[in-house]
Design brief:
With 408 residues, this protein is α+β, with helices and mostly antiparallel strands. The longest helix is centred in the first third of the chain and has 20 residues. It has a 7-stranded mixed sheet, sandwiched between helices. It has 14 helices and 19 strands. It binds uridine 5'-triphosphate.
Length: 408
């Protein structure tokens, strides 16, 4: 794209400020800026004014799933099926590590965060150790695909290489970079981060599959015989990955997708719940759940909508392929976005100042057509690190790690 064409396109859209510093830039910087502008998804940007209502309009009903008691009773059966799948290299793992972890407030990749007290205990280390346990038990390594973003790709690769991938064989690890999306202020103007670049941020975890394909890694997974992807978040330090019983239950149930869930502790708990919407599986976010639904109870007093998702999913590879052309909705989220003001000064806002555009993995569940909620013990499998202190923080995660026998 050349300068003249870009300038006239931007002027027509009321976004000409993006080229305000063009004349000050070197050749390389000019090229980068023009190519970033070329990649702007204008249809997504337009959503800032009228964000789609994603709260779900269909009829919500509870989704049948496996409770801890049933899983315990059938554990040996599930484990045997899952163990076979792992041994036959039918399972691949996808680590979502493209987020910015803004709530944690560290510039480094979240996985490089050290939760140790008397010795280093990195988040990546905990995850890889948990996965290695399964692989070593069954004598088969699970390919591990790590999604990063432009913001942390270099640092993530360097960190893991420096720590020798925490003992995981390098030939089973591959990285891929997710897409970035432009951000706008509250009047819809796209923000600049520097004179030669837009304020871009990772476009949410919903793009993991398309990014995996673009990186050529679906071909890699297929060549290895992968039939299931176990996709999980970077920030749960008790995350069980390639859990044979979970895999076995999904295979045995014949579903296209399965989700690890924890039982909600209270109606107000801020966690998305898995349910059926017009007969299809869907995750309803805590802020979308009506008061009435949040408080609805079964005869035995337990919550009717109690399956809280913990971002640990199994996706059937063949179904993913089938739905790959389908679009998932874009969420418009208010955020604090550092930007360059009209005078060319960098501003780090204290309050939300604009919108980011993200797709979310939970919106893929509906497209999968069927999903099995698989309940796990919160104290053993759910220690998310979102914040530095308070709820879901380094402090709470440390306590849970200790209780699970991890020396910190
Ligand atoms: P979160 O929703 O907690 O977002 O991500 P975050 O960016 O890590 O943290 P905050 O909101 O800025 O504090 C849940 C999981 O999805 C991944 C994260 O790395 C985490 O594993 N993720 C999120 C991505 O891989 N890409 C994204 O664009 C967003």
């Amino acid at each position: 794209m050349n300068y003249e064409k870009t300038a006239s396109d931007l002027a027509a859209r009321g976004q000409e400020h993006l080229l305000a510093y063009y004349g000050e830039l070197g050749e390389e910087e000019k090229k980068r800026l023009l190519s970033q502008i070329e990649e702007i998804k204008w249809d997504e940007i337009a959503l800032w004014k009228n964000p789609r209502d994603l709260s779900g309009k269909g009829k919500i009903t509870p989704i049948p799933g496996l409770k801890i008691s049933e899983i315990s009773a059938r554990r040996a059966e599930f484990q045997a099926i899952g163990a076979e799948a792992v041994k036959e290299h039918k399972v691949g793992a996808v680590l979502l590590a493209g987020g910015q972890g803004t709530r944690l407030g560290s510039d480094a990749p979240k996985g490089a965060y050290d939760v140790g007290l008397t010795r280093p205990v990195y988040i990546f280390e905990r995850l890889i150790c948990n996965l290695s346990e399964v692989c070593e038990k069954f004598g088969a390594y699970v390919p591990l695909y790590i999604m990063t973003s432009d913001k942390n790709d270099k640092e993530t690769r360097a960190f893991l290489a420096e720590h020798n991938f925490f003992g995981y064989p390098e030939e089973y690890i591959a990285f891929f970079v997710q897409d970035m999306a432009a951000s706008v202020d509250f009047t819809g103007k796209i923000l600049l981060e520097e004179k030669d670049r837009l304020a871009l941020s990772p476009n949410g975890n919903g793009g993991w599959y398309s990014s995996l394909i673009r990186a050529g890694l679906l071909t890699d997974a297929e060549a290895r015989g992968v039939e299931w992807f176990n996709v999980f978040a970077v920030d749960n330090v008790l995350q069980r990955i390639a859990d044979p019983a979970f895999i076995g239950a999904a295979i045995e149930s014949g579903v296209n997708c399965a989700a690890k869930v924890v039982r909600k502790t209270a109606p107000e708990e801020r966690v998305g719940v898995l349910c059926l919407e017009d007969g299809l599986p869907n995750v309803i976010e805590y802020y979308e759940l009506s008061e009435e639904m949040a408080h609805a109870r079964n005869k035995d007093g337990s919550l009717l909508y109690s399956d809280g998702v913990i971002l640990n999913y199994l996706f059937r590879a063949s179904k993913l392929k089938e739905i790959s052309a389908k679009k998932i909705p874009v969420h418009v989220a208010k955020k604090k976005i550092p930007f360059l003001d009209g005078a060319g000064n960098k501003v780090f806002p204290d309050a939300e100042n604009g919108y980011k555009f993200e797709t979310l993995i939970l919106d893929m569940i509906k497209l999968m057509g069927s999903c099995l909620p698989y309940e796990v013990e919160r104290e053993k499998e759910f220690a998310p690190i979102k914040n530095k202190t308070g709820t879901d923080s380094v402090e709470t995660a440390r306590e849970l790690l200790r209780r699970n026998g991890v020396v910190l």
